[in-house]
Write a structure and sequence with these properties.
single chain; alpha+beta
Length: 208
């Protein structure tokens, strides 16, 4: 692909050169189009994730070992960077690159342990995919958890390829939306620390 187009009979000015280069980099930086993700790819991703989740919750391992395993599930299948930035909200624009890196790392551990404990409640259960559909620029994959002595309930997984990989960026468990609930939680934590991102990150690490 050619990014710089010669200007006929004119010398390429510094301004036009810079504009051409900027446009070229903008094209390179655009995430993979949403249509590259299809129904089969979205379902396959969640099918693999659920196979791992089902194996973990029925393994009989200790809680500490299970939580470590859930970290691996989030690392492999979740777009933790997008989830972390989204849940931090407006504060993400004020944070330095180093702070965002530290926050994303701490948030990844925190969220995998939090939802790992939630999934741990499903011991003895089986989670199965029941369907999927496109929604705007992503796919919703539906699954149902079958627990002993409890009515089945639905889990929704939102999958996108915008990061360059097919990853889930949200989970809705019994109507509880991960992105929305964590955005509120992270905002409240940051407010209690009067916007001090470093103190907020340190406390988030402790929660993990």
């Amino acid at each position: 692909m050619t990014f710089l187009t010669p200007m006929p009979n004119k010398t390429l000015t510094r301004r036009s050169f810079a504009a051409s280069v900027a446009a070229g980099f903008a094209l390179v930086a655009v995430p993979r189009p949403a249509f590259a993700l299809d129904d089969a790819s979205a379902r396959a991703l969640i099918d693999r994730a659920l196979a791992d989740v089902n194996e973990i919750i029925n393994s009989g391992r200790s809680e500490a070992r299970m939580l470590a395993d859930f970290e691996g599930v989030f690392t492999r299948y979740a777009d933790v960077t997008t989830i972390a930035r989204t849940t931090l909200g407006a504060a993400a624009r004020q944070a330095t690159a180093a702070q965002m890196s530290e926050y994303t790392r701490a948030f990844g551990i925190y969220i995998s342990h939090k939802y790992g404990r939630r999934f741990r409640e499903f011991i003895g259960a089986q989670i199965d995919i029941t369907g999927s559909r496109p929604l705007k620029s992503f796919y919703e994959v539906r699954s149902v958890a079958h627990l002993q002595g409890t009515a089945p309930f639905e889990l929704l997984w939102y999958v996108s390829g915008a990061s360059g990989r097919d990853l889930f960026f949200n989970i809705v468990i019994e109507g509880v939306d991960l992105l929305n609930s964590e955005r509120v939680e992270m905002g409240a934590m940051l407010d209690r620390r009067r916007g001090d991102i470093n103190a907020f990150i340190a406390d988030l690490r402790a929660l993990g």
